[in-house]
Amino acid sequence: MTNVSVVGAGLAGSEAAWQLAQRGFHVTLYEMKPKKRTPAHHFDDEFAELVCSNSFRGDRLENAVGLLKEELRQSDSLIMRCADATRVEAGGALAVDRHAFARQVTDAIRNHPNITVVEEEVIRIPEKPVIIATGPLTSDALSESIAEYFGGADYLNFYDAAAPLVEADSVDMSLAWFASRYDRGSADYVNCAMNQEEYLAFVRELAQAEEAEVHGFEDSRVFEGCMPVEVMARRGVDTLRYGPLKPVGLKDPKTGREPYAVVQLRRDNAEGTVYNLVGFQTHLKHPEQKRVFSMIPALHDAVFLRYGVMHRNTFLNSPMLLDRAYSDRREPLVAFAGQMTGVEGYVESTASGYVASVSMAARLQGREAPDFTKKTAMGALAYYISDPSVRDFQPMNVNFGIIEPLDHRVRGKANKNLEISRRALEVLSEMRNGGDSIENHT
Question: In sequence order, what DSSP letters do the residues of 26-49 get, joined into one string?
């Protein structure tokens, strides 16, 4: 039985290990926890830890990430199976109980007969075949080894941020209400209204609040999709009102009108006892977080169960280094997966782990790696990170802009996106039914 090493038991690594094991390969899965953790980690011995939000984002096929999730579901993704089994109500989004989710993934991995878990830090790239999926928090030693492997390839570094968690019972519901934007789905978000005076005072203090020391941090290096809330406040007084605090589609039942600004809280566990501040990634000092975020009227007495943290995020210059199977262009049995390849987001990381592993399996069996094409969301991401024409490479969430457009016009954006999604799922179905390399071959 061929052995494949997978380094890192996050979302991408767990998915990759599972897919390889399901195809009859023996997998040695290396995970440095609990012997070593990063500042962003909180769990000691559970895999697939969600270090930022507990949301996998939109779940509708009109959204590109909704399509990506459905592609993974139809491809027997372990991560999606566990996410669906542990979901908590979040309107039109897929959010999970992060502890229950991590436990399910961990149990599935540890109980698989073809997977051996080794709890130790890997400081050098193991012998091929191997998939490196150590994420944006790759240790310094392994980062140096990867750089050496690629002959001193340039790394691009930026910083990622995690939002605070509050105790649900500490939210003043006389100043908040349950609703989802535009009343889509069930009323799963706690909406905390702010009038103009409250908002302006909040933004002023937020912009001036004291930050924790983060070596090398620069506003210009922050990935737009996970920008610290204090950075947004400094970019303009109305930036937050057009971002995470936008009131559009949310009517205060007390007034029947949209407030000046709205802070949304999303359930973080199945019991509904913990909520996170949506879009409030931050690296303010903890006392400053308490002081400034308590200025939100409904959170004046909030109990913070976890403060936001800021951590390093490292990714490869993938277009120069990797192919559409996430493999080294020079050596196809050395592959990478997850956010270190430049895909951004939980679902995108999972998809990269899936594509890397089924491609590795096919190559080890003497077959061509499957071509998911740019007609699928999984394929479009793989082509994006491997396109050598891309300059000034930056991490990318899945979006319809990178998916191959239709060859005919469709009226209405939602209708067009739905048709693109239907086409993508048909392509995957044809790949499976045609005996392509994505099926389990044991």
Answer: EEEEE--TTT---TT---SS-SS-
